[in-house]
Amino acid sequence: MSAGILGMGKFVPEHVVTNTDLEKRMDTSDEWIRTRTGISERRIADEQTNTSDMAFEAAKKAIHNAGLTAKDIDLILVATVTPDHPFPSVACMLQERLEANHVPAMDISAACSGFMYGMVTAKQFIDNNTYRHVLIVGVEKLSKITNWEDRGTAVLFGDAAAAAVMGPVSDGKGILSFELGADGNGGKYLYQEDQFIKMNGREVFKFAVRQMGESAVHVAEKAGLKKEDIDYLIPHQANIRIMEASRERLGIPEEKMIKTIQKYGNTSASSIPLALADALEEGKIKDGDLIVMVGFGGGLTWGALTLKWGK
Ligand code: UT7
User: Fold this and answer.
1) Å from CA of 200 to ligand 1 middle
2) Residues 244-255: pLDDT tens digits?
3) Per the structure, how many domains does the chain have?
4) Which of 53, 66, 80, 284 lies 20 to 30 Å from 89, alpha-carbon distance?
5) pLDDT tens, 62-84?
6) Does 300 sit behind a cis peptide bond, omega within 30 degrees of 0 on the bond before it?
7) Mean pLDDT of 276-296
8) What proportion of the chain, given as a percentage, has pLDDT over 70?
9) How far is the CA of 262 from the centre of ligand 1 (A)?
10) Does one domain contain both 198 and 229?
């Protein structure tokens, strides 16, 4: 047996903020945002909806889609940099809301790479038979740390949650290879200070293009995949130009890259699982498909894995 995904769920707030809406709030244009980032609109949560509320909605669906109940969950991991509070963790709040058993629960802070860190952590516990069913949620309410006066960051981000239940799947399926990494020297390029996200966009861009491409190629090689074998690439949805660079580095055609950035913007830890959940809903991903996922984020951090879809 190996560790794979048994069920997915997602939640996006109803409120849509378009580029045209942002034009009215700051010195920017729909044209600039679309051509420089690929984003057309994003979802923004209302005042009453916090990170744990979105996590709860996505988690319920993932558990249901896995054919399980909350009592079957053995470990809860939440990847987020926008928890409701520094502590208790969103994972503990979620355990209570789900009425799960008194299983271990913790948040993972690896910014946009958080879901990759979560999946790889879950895999270790599943592989060594410590825990059978692991719930992992990628969730962000980035709007609460967005400085709406800073057009360099405000146009990029959105709020969302997406969740997976991981567990044992048949041999040959599930996670085939992975790579995680971090470089604290780059922490100064993307961080939170005085409540707000601060970013050196150009430095993050350069790092992301290099690291996403390299990590995607490494995990494909480790799994013995040739470019023709790859059915889908699911990159972190940060900027369409960064995503395209990683696709080109892998040498796969455009239609094999899952793209949701146009409608959700960059949702950090939620972005990769949200794209996967969307692709599943659209019926794109089939049993046995080979998927490469790759992300990067503040820290700086990165993570990639290959997954053969199915139980
Ligand atoms: O999850 C990880 C999160 N971070 C990222 O993924 C960020 C990675 N970086 C990027 O995606 C890009 O660097 C940005 C989208 C943030 C910026 O794109 P860029 O092509 O690197 O633009 P730039 O920062 O070099 O700015 C070009 C121009 C500047 O004007 P001047 O100096 O040439 O006159 C900016 O002031 O664009 C201006 N600009 C804007 N104009 C209209 C910057 N933001 C905006 C804006 N609307 N929102």
Assistant:
1) 9
2) 999 999 999 999
3) 2
4) 66
5) 999 999 999 999 999 999 999 99
6) yes
7) 97
8) 100
9) 16
10) yes
d(CA 18, CA 42): 7
Whether residue 27 is found in the same domain as residue 147: yes
pLDDT confidence of residue 188? 97
Ligand 1 close to Cβ of residue 22 (< 6 A) = no
- Asked if 266 is an active-site residue, the reply is yes
Based on the domain organization, do 221 and 258 belong to the same domain? yes
Does the annotation mark 112 as catalytic?
yes
Best mutation site among 198, 205, 209, 296 for ligand 1 pocket (most ligand atoms within 8 Å of CB):
205
Show which of 150, 169, 188 is a domain's final residue.
169
Same domain, 185 and 284: yes
pTM: 0.97
Q: What pLDDT is recorded for position 60?
A: 98
Tell me: do 159 and 187 sit in the same domain.
no
State the CB neighbour count (10 A cutoff) for residue 129: 9
**What pLDDT, in 10s, does the model give residues 219-237?**
999 999 999 999 999 999 9
Per annotation, catalytic residue among 19, 65, 112, 133: 112
Q: What are phi and psi of 290, to 5 degrees?
A: -100, 120
Q: Is the CB of 155 under 6 A from ligand 1?
A: yes
By the 10 Å C-beta count (0-12 exposed, 13-18 middle, 19+ buried), 303 is classed as buried
- Do 149 and 271 lie in one domain? The reply is no
194 and 141 inside one domain:
no
Q: Which atom, in ligand 1's list, is nearest to the CA of 37? A: 15
Q: Is 200 a catalytic residue?
A: no
Nearest-CA neighbor of 257 among 216, 209, 198, 197?
A: 216
Per-residue CA distances from 261 to 119, 129, 156, 270 (Å): 22, 36, 9, 12
Structural domain span for residue 205: 174-308
Q: What is the DSSP letter of 21?
A: H
